[in-house]
Automatic annotation (TrEMBL):
It comes from Zhihengliuella flava. One of its GO terms (cellular component) is cytosol. Its cofactor is Mg(2+); Mn(2+). Binds 2 magnesium or manganese ions per subunit. Pfam families: Dala_Dala_lig_C, Dala_Dala_lig_N. It is found in: Cytoplasm. GO terms for biological process: cell wall organization; peptidoglycan biosynthetic process; regulation of cell shape. Mg(2+) 2 binds at residues 340, 342. This is D-alanine--D-alanine ligase.
Amino acid sequence: MTSASLPRVLLLFGGRSSEHSVSCVTAAGVLSAIDTATYDVVAVGITKDGTWTPVAATPEQWSFESGALPEVTANGLTAHLSLDAAANERGAELTVSASTPSAERDRGGAESLGRIDVVFPLLHGPFGEDGTLQGMLELADMPYVGAGVAASAIGMDKHHMKVAFAAAGFDVGPYAVITDKQWRRDPQVALASAGHLVYPLFVKPARAGSSMGITRVDEPAGLRAAVEEARQHDPKVVIEQGIEGREIECGVLEGRGAAAPRTTLPGEIAVADGSHTFYDFEAKYVDGAAAQLSCPASLPDAELDRVRELAAAAFDAIGAEGLSRVDFFYTPDGRWVINEINTLPGFTPHSMYPQMWEKTGLSYPDLIDELIQLALERRTGLR
Ligand SMILES: Nc1ncnc2c1ncn2[C@@H]1O[C@H](COP(=O)(O)OP(=O)(O)O)[C@@H](O)[C@H]1O
Ligand SMILES: [Mg+2]
């Protein structure tokens, strides 16, 4: 088979959110594992300020091993995906041009990088995982891996996901929301909206990830500063009552055709080190010894089955597609409190989601293949 007849996959990574570098590390993992005998891979990195930059489809410069946190930087070229749905018909042309008009004149005009059949967004956080990119791809009639517009937006927002989960009958912990306008109107009144919550509290940016901007607050004196900190990441803030429980996660993969979602063996995260009071950014990515991941979690079979059912139900509750990781607290009295759904969970080969699939019998390369096949199989537009 010649590469001209292989499906062309556009890997998109980097991006404008605070999880830019995490996304680059994910790209390194996927670039190392994707089967290039099956797919023709094209890579575009998005800089922190939003320029789509064509880059080599090789993993080397994007891994953590390169020393500093990897970052996509401008290289004078900009990639563009055609948004003309009528012309596109499932797929779109990718062109590359110089970033400035004068350089573009010198180059003699835009150059085509050919047609893309499917986009694999490896982007975490706002402007990638939150429905904005998905909306653009829908407009372009472009197939893509993962959740659609609404599910991405709901799954990104820790407020709206709680509303959806509570409506679907899930056990959601007590919480309060402070919008930007409420805070700017009167911080004192806004803080009072969390007055019914029992300490410790967890103060979070509504739309972030990788534990960025999250503070555990043990007494009222620390609340205001924690809100200010969360607001560095997102003007909308969620304040949650701390839940005592084991952290159990379960991976979900959409079923083929009309089949029900598939789930992984559930895994457990245990934060071991005394210097981390919760599963914070350092424990997730920097301090390798801080968190212990075990899969399957040590639980009775009936509870393993129960959390798998709940994870599939959470996937359906927000109308997710492709993949999600659903995270729960398992309380000492045996309740499953849902913490969050991630529609683009950590996806390096060492991340929980691929690791749990590995333990369930689906390797990382096969998982990547399955996700692309799901995207190619599903129709574009309303579905
Ligand atoms: N309500 C809570 N009770 C207890 N621990 C929490 C709570 N919320 C968050 N945490 C801790 O903080 C971590 C990160 O919070 P999470 O909501 O999962 O944010 P992110 O989207 O950044 O992963 C969790 O894995 C858990 O260790
Ligand atoms: Mg989390």
